[in-house]
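Working notes for the structural subgroup meeting. M.R. asked for a predicted model of this chain before we commit to crystallization trials. I am recording the input and output together here so anyone reviewing the notebook later can reproduce the run.

Input as submitted:
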Amino acid sequence: WAGLAAAGEINTTPEGVAIEGYDSVGYFTAGEAREGEALYQTEWQGATWRFASAAERDAFAADPGAYAPQFGGFCANGLSEGHKATGNPGIWRIIGGKLYLFHTERGRRRWDGASDVQAYIEDARATWERLKDN
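Returned structure, recorded in token form:
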């Protein structure tokens, strides 16, 4: 699966498509994971990003950092535990206005139940800085 952090590696499919072709803007506008279409795509950070509509594509193009998943679309929970795992675009949360993908429901539930999710985010960020180019 794929994704992005503002300045780092983006996890893509072998064809170079970010977050398995899911519409990263749709998480924010529709509150759901939905597939994008090749008709509405743009290139950013070396990856192809797909969207459900031209308006969502244009919103992403105007401010990709606002919509792209954190940590290159890799699993936020895995990173918080010290390792890099692929994020699943169907398992996600928006926290503090940022999109996070998770590899498993278990990982997402761990974050959902956290009394201090910010600590998980900081742990994930530290691991990301160390592993993003590997």
